[in-house]
Each structure stands twice: as structure tokens, then as C-alpha cells.
Design goal:
The chain is an alpha/beta fold. Among the domains are: 2-224, Rossmann fold, CATH 3.40.50; 232-282; 542-638, Helix Hairpins, CATH 1.10.287.1490. It contains 19 helices and 21 strands. It is globular and about 100 Å long.
């Protein structure tokens, strides 16, 4: 594989730098292939990333997303193909190695800023990015070496964002961020003017940031304009049509083979037999698509007959070296509750789960579980306690020795360690695979209260969906820490909120919390923006600004409404044709007209799949329309109109 550039790339400070700048060029990948032994990640893939395109890269775990990034960076060789990098093109990425060369956090971050020709000091930009990623002003003067691992990764992310590359590669940038910082990062990336390739298990974050989506699927790459829902709908429709076509072809092939076998010896049929033999040889045989497995499980339920499972009363806790993390926290836990613990990192979310699990004694107050409470606790410290010398099967069996080997193997398969994979030793597994083993251990033992600390960090988007379904189906109570807003919105009916140095209980869902309370950091940021800018427009300026917003609203909302109407019209047209095609299919079946039956089956199937895809598209357009209407209404309200 060649990385084509007039002069070679230089790795410096965690960035891949190319000499001279060229803003109007694009990255071009041609016929790229990569395999490991018998496993082919991708074969002959080609794509381009144009300036201003923000591309979400999706695919199951293990399909090669991170490997693709490493090839683009020149850190790993492909088997064949080329990566065309224009002269002057700079790629920014999150380096795996954390190396810091400056004595303070602010100096380290500011060192990534491109030099200004006029000599202007841009340090304020470094402060803004650091603050957005959760650093306090007191952190700016700290030595990067004393930061926690998570904040060192954040500092590396700040340097990457501040370097202003032509192409930004972000591989799971939200893993070490809290929900407030993730929301800030989303706003930052929506304003990103360069090109972006983004890998994340948070589908809503991806769709909210990107302009295009690119899937690595079955060894190929597919890139489209639009979000993940649109891309997956297209892939699903094409694969269903492929399978329908394959089955039809197989039937034709079987009929031809029967004809050949029956009449091969008859001289009068020799020409017809040869014709069918040649037709079979010419016609490429479609292969059956291999099954792609999802995480597929249900939490085992332990019986619980009462209503109240636990009471947290006046709970307080603090580590010796610092101020209290939790003071006077009280809330009950009832059967069926879905309680999300949210807030910035380092404020006590994981500590609260450890207190509820009985792993830490409170400084004051009490955690009072009721009789027959059985807890399943998923935490990062639990992952560290897995025994590396055990196989996956042995570790899952240890959670419940009463299970038969068949039952243990079934559980291993549910967390995607089917067949021989269940015999792998934990010492050779990745962090994400170990997290799935811990999930398997929780599945092995019946529980009625789940304590889940960032359980989705190492799951792909499809597995996150399966996780949400499993939690929804669980009849016990769930207390959950997660930074994925889609999961919070789908599951939480009550929140424990760490914000502004306090912890409070909010009786309602996550979207309700954002509407009624919101995050203090965001309120402060909005306040600064209002006070640092010019005063609110008055008189002629206000009227001019209002007219501009109204015109823009009319243009964007009008376009979205036309798109919705267009989709609705196509749905109505297709649905109006279906009854006639179905009647024609019935009539063809009565006539035993095989060719007509096959054709009509294929067309009606394709029409139904198209209708389903159009309904999904219409829902997405409707949501965008509502979001735009809310945004413009808010802007006009601020102007007093």
C-alpha cells in the first residue's frame, strides 16, 4: 500500500503533519484491501473524503474501523491499494501514546494551535476548548502528568481539536467524556469546517454531527449522504432483494439441472440441453449471505414480590483527601424503576453505585436493601477482577456453578462468544471483550436489581440497541450510569443528578430534565456568550435580524416540508399500486404462470421494502422539521418577536 504525497508525512506531537497547506484537496482511497489470516476486513474498497464532509464510520466490532484509521495514518500497511494524500494536507488524530512536553495543561493544549501570521495570541481558544471538555480554571496550571488517565485523554483530544487539521480522525472520542462534555463536543464538531471521520457507538451523537455515513459491511465500504438510519435501511433492503433473487435463481438452476439430467441422453433434446448447460455456466451463482450475529440476551429475573427494593436515606460520602462527594442524598428504589445517575466525571457517579452495591461504607446515612434483594453489579472495577487464566466459559460458570455446560455455552453465545470463542482465555481478550464476559456473568445469576456503570462503552451501535431492549424487558429495577443521551432518553424515568457541586434527585426523564433544569455549565456558557457579544439588537438592527431569521426559517422549513410531502406522495403511490399487483399475483398463481409469479413476487417485495424505508425517512424528516421549528421559535423569542 502506498500513501501518496509529494513529500513524506512527519509524525510530531501526536499529529500526522504534511508540508504546506492545501485546503481544496481531498483524501482519496483506491482499491484498499486488508486481511488478517483468513479474516478479510475489507477488499478493494474505494472512497473519497471531500473538504467540509463530516463522515460517520459505522460497522460491527471487528469489521476494521480502527484498522482503516491506522492505514490512513500510515501506522499500518494494507495488503493492496493506495491512500492518496494531497500536498500540504494535515491529518489530526487522537494518538494512543500519551506524551506531554509542556509543564502545564494550558501550555500543552496551546502548543497545538497553528501559528498566526500576525502574531496574535490564540490562547483564549485553548481555554475555551479545555473548559468545554470539563477542565476547570484551576486545572489550567496543573502538570499534565498528574492528571487521571481520563483527563489525559481529554487533553490529547483538546490538542487534536486545536490543531485545525484538514482531516480530523476521531475514534470513540466520547469514551472518557461525561454527558456535559459530550454535548459541548457535539456543538464544536457541528461547526467544524474541515473534513471529519468519526467512529462512535453513540448513534445519536454521530447523526447529530455528521453530514455523511460510511459503513464497513461484509468487506465492502458504502458511503452515502445522510445518517445511519438511511444507510442501514438501504443495506437491509438490498440484502433482502439479494436473498429473494438468490432463492429465485436457485430454483431456476435446479429446474435447469433436472431438465439436463432427464433429457441429456435424448438426441432430439440435445440442442435444448446444451443451451441450458451454457446458460448455467454463464450465470454467476449468488452466494447466501452469512449470518451476522447481534448481542442477544435477557437478564435472568429473581422473584421479588414487594414494591420497595431499597431505601437510600441521608447518604453522605467523601474520600479522606477531598471534600464530600455526596451529602444528604435520599431516594427510594421501587420494582420497575429506571434511575439514571448523570453528571460530570469525577463527581461521584461510580462512587454512588459502589455505595449501593455495598462495596463502600457510607460516611453518614444508610443504604437499606430489603429482604430477597439480589443485585447484579456491572462496574469497571469488576472487569479488573476477572481472572485472566480462566476461559470465557470458566469465568461465566463461576458466577453460577448450578448451570449445566449447555446453559453456560448458551450464555457465552448470547454475549457473542459462540463455539470455540468460549474457550479463549481472558488474558488474550480486549477490554471490550472482557466487558462482554462480565455481562455474561451477570446473565448467569438471577437478579432483581441491576447496577450498571457505563455498560455500553465497548459495544457497537447494534449491541447498544440490544442492550436497551434487554433493560426494557427486565422487570426488576435498574440504576444506570451512562453518557449516551439516546440511552438516557430511552430508559430513565428518574435521575440522580451530580451538577454544580451538589447531588439532587430529579423526578422525571432526561429530556424533561434538559427542558426544565438543564446543565449549569451550558447555562453559564450561554450567559458568557450573551455578555461577551454585542448588546441585544434594537430598532432597525432587530427588525433586520428578525427578517433574516424569518427568511432562513421559511427556506429551511419549506424545504423540509416539501421533502416530507414528496415522501408521503411516493408512499401513497406505491400503496395504491400494491392491491393491483397482489391481485395479479393471485391470478398468475391460478394460471400456474411461474415466470409471472416470480416477477410479481419480486416487485411486490421490493415495493413493500421501499414503503418501509420511506416511512423511516418520513419520521426522521418530521423530527428534523420539529427541531428546526423549535430552534427558530427560540431565536425569534430572544429578539422579542
Amino acid at each position: 500500500m502506498n500513501i501518496q504525497s509529494p513529500s513524506g508525512p512527519v509524525v510530531r506531537g501526536g499529529f500526522l503533519l504534511f508540508p504546506a497547506r492545501c485546503h481544496d484537496s481531498m483524501l482519496t482511497v483506491t482499491d484498499l484491501s486488508k486481511s488478517y489470516g483468513r479474516q478479510t476486513l475489507f477488499d478493494g474498497v474505494s472512497f473519497q473524503v471531500a473538504p467540509g464532509e463530516r463522515v460517520g464510520v459505522v460497522g460491527r466490532n471487528g469489521t476494521g474501523k480502527t484498522t482503516l484509521f491506522r492505514i490512513l495514518l500510515g501506522e499500518e500497511a494494507s495488503d493492496s491499494g493506495t491512500v492518496g494524500v494531497p500536498a500540504g494536507y494535515r491529518i489530526g488524530y487522537l494518538a494512543q501514546q500519551l506524551r506531554f512536553d509542556h509543564p502545564s495543561v494550558l501550555e500543552e493544549a496551546a502548543s497545538a494551535l497553528p501559528p498566526r501570521e500576525d502574531g496574535t495570541d490564540d490562547t483564549y481558544r485553548a481555554k475555551a476548548v479545555l473548559a468545554g471538555l470539563g477542565f476547570s480554571e484551576g486545572d489550567f496550571s496543573r502538570d499534565p502528568a498528574v492528571l487521571s488517565g481520563g483527563f489525559q485523554v481529554r487533553l490529547n483530544l483538546a490538542r487534536t481539536l486545536l490543531s485545525a487539521p484538514d482531516l480530523l480522525l476521531l475514534d470513540e472520542p466520547t469514551n472518557y467524556l461525561d454527558v456535559v462534555s459530550i454535548r459541548w463536543l457535539g456543538r464544536f464538531l457541528r461547526g467544524w469546517r474541515g473534513a471529519l471521520l468519526l467512529i462512535t457507538h453513540d448513534r445519536d451523537f454521530m447523526d447529530g454531527v455528521t453530514t455523511h455515513t460510511m459503513a464497513i459491511h461484509r468487506g465492502r465500504v458504502r458511503k452515502i449522504s445522510g445518517g445511519t438510519e438511511k444507510l442501514y435501511a438501504q443495506i437491509l433492503q438490498e440484502e433482502e432483494i439479494h436473498e429473494q433473487t438468490r432463492m429465485n435463481d436457485e430454483k431456476k438452476r435446479k429446474d435447469a439441472e433436472i431438465f439436463i439430467a432427464r433429457f441429456r441422453a435424448q438426441a432430439t433434446k440435445a440442442r435444448a440441453v446444451q443451451s441450458r448447460i451454457k446458460a448455467l455456466a454463464r450465470h454467476e451463482r449468488l452466494e447466501k449471505l452469512s449470518e451476522i450475529r447481534d448481542l442477544d440476551f435477557r437478564f435472568a429475573e429473581a422473584p421479588f414480590t414487594g414494591k420497595w427494593m431499597m431505601e437510600v436515606r441521608d447518604l453522605s460520602f467523601g474520600y479522606d483527601a477531598g471534600p464530600p462527594l455526596i451529602e444528604g442524598l435520599s431516594f427510594p428504589v421501587a420494582k420497575g424503576d429506571r434511575i439514571a445517575v448523570v453528571g460530570p466525571n469525577g463527581r461521584g457517579k461510580t462512587t454512588l453505585l459502589r455505595l449501593l452495591a455495598g462495596e463502600l461504607p457510607p460516611s453518614a446515612g444508610a443504604v437499606k436493601p430489603t429482604v430477597n434483594l439480589k443485585i447484579g453489579y456491572f462496574g469497571q472495577t469488576n472487569v479488573d477482577r476477572l481472572r485472566p487464566e480462566h476461559t470465557v466459559e470458566e469465568e461465566v460458570r463461576q458466577a453460577n456453578p448450578a448451570l449445566t455446560r449447555t446453559q453456560v455455552r448458551t450464555l457465552c453465545g448470547a454475549v457473542m462468544f459462540g463455539g470455540g470463542a468460549a474457550e479463549k482465555r481472558l488474558s488474550v481478550l480486549s477490554g471490550g471483550e472482557r466487558s462482554r464476559v462480565l455481562l455474561g456473568k451477570i446473565l448467569a445469576t438471577p437478579v432483581n436489581l441491576l447496577l450498571l456503570d457505563e455498560p455500553t462503552n465497548h459495544l457497537d451501535q447494534e449491541s447498544v440497541d440490544a442492550f436497551v431492549e434487554a433493560v426494557n424487558a427486565f422487570e426488576g429495577a435498574v440504576i444506570l450510569v451512562t453518557h449516551i443521551e439516546r440511552v438516557l432518553s430511552a430508559l430513565a424515568s428518574k435521575l440522580v443528578v451530580f451538577d454544580g457541586g451538589k447531588v439532587d434527585v430529579f423526578d422525571g426523564g432526561y429530556r424533561d430534565f434538559l427542558d426544565r433544569v438543564g446543565w449549569r455549565a451550558e447555562a453559564a456558557e450561554e450567559g458568557k456568550a450573551r455578555h461577551s457579544g454585542s448588546r441585544p439588537a434594537k430598532g432597525r438592527d432587530a427588525r433586520r435580524e428578525r427578517a433574516r431569521i424569518v427568511a432562513l426559517r421559511s427556506k429551511e422549513i419549506g424545504a423540509l416540508r416539501k421533502a416530507v410531502e414528496s415522501v408521503e406522495a411516493e408512499i401513497l403511490l406505491l400503496e395504491s399500486r400494491l392491491p393491483g399487483e397482489e391481485e395479479a399475483l393471485i391470478e398468475a398463481s391460478r394460471r400456474s404462470d411461474g415466470a409471472a409469479v416470480r416477477t410479481l413476487k419480486s416487485t411486490t417485495f421490493a415495493a413493500r421494502m421501499r414503503i418501509e424505508g420511506l416511512f423511516r425517512e418520513m419520521v426522521a424528516l418530521g423530527e428534523r422539521l420539529q427541531e428546526k421549528e423549535r430552534t427558530y421559535a427560540s431565536e425569534l423569542e430572544e429578539l422579542g418577536g
